[in-house]
Design brief:
Layout lengths: L9 H13 L5 H4 L3 H10 L7 H9 L2 H14 L1
Helix pairs in contact: 1-4, 1-5
Length: about 80
């Protein structure tokens, strides 16, 4: 089932921003394949705390959706 950007809550968006910053703000297409590794590392080092639902949504996210969600952060600089 495809999810629309409006269906991702602030917790999912915040987690995506944190992972994106940890990956040196790479493009979403490059970020998505590394999400499992990055999420695991950030959780292991206690920089990120996700619910199972949040983790599931992040790992199911498409690059296009991630790109849309990250657009506002890119504008900030």
């Amino acid at each position: 089932m495809q999810r629309h950007p409006g269906h991702y809550g602030p917790d999912v968006q915040h987690a995506l921003f944190m992972v994106w910053h940890a990956a040196n703000r790479i493009c979403a297409k490059g970020l998505i394949p590394f999400l499992p590794t990055l999420i695991e590392a950030l959780e292991r080092h206690e920089h990120l705390h996700l619910t199972e639902e949040c983790r599931r949504q992040l790992l199911a996210m498409s690059a296009a959706t991630a790109d849309r969600l990250l657009r506002s952060q890119r504008k900030l600089g």
